[in-house]
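Z., the sequence and structure:
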Amino acid sequence: MAGSAWNAFLNAVATGHDGVFRVQTIHMDAYVKEFHPLVLRYDSRTDARGCSALNFGEAKGMEFDRVLILPHGPIEKYLRTGNRDEVAGSATKFYVGVTRARSSVAFLYDGECNVHCVEWEPRS
């Protein structure tokens, strides 16, 4: 799956920030400043929090080093429960969003996360 988030796991080039991350809202500005990710959302109803953002569908076919996903309801439920059925209705768009990244995918999410992701916090 070249050019996808799987490259974070298969990529022979380590960037020092590779994999899947959870970023709390209070750390969003620091994350964006440090990593310059493409900010993605399901559609324009999801608040971009002052960032330039693309909808998942607009990013189809594109590749970026890093992606920050602003989750909507079903993705938030998936992150909370780990149950893939939670994103069933929007799975295609979710797949497009996640697979845009070469090195890292981050979710802006404040709740408890029950999928494999690393908590990111800014350096002190």
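Residues 74 and 89 are 8 Å apart (CA to CA). The first strand starts at residue 19 and ends at 23.

Let me know what you think.
H.
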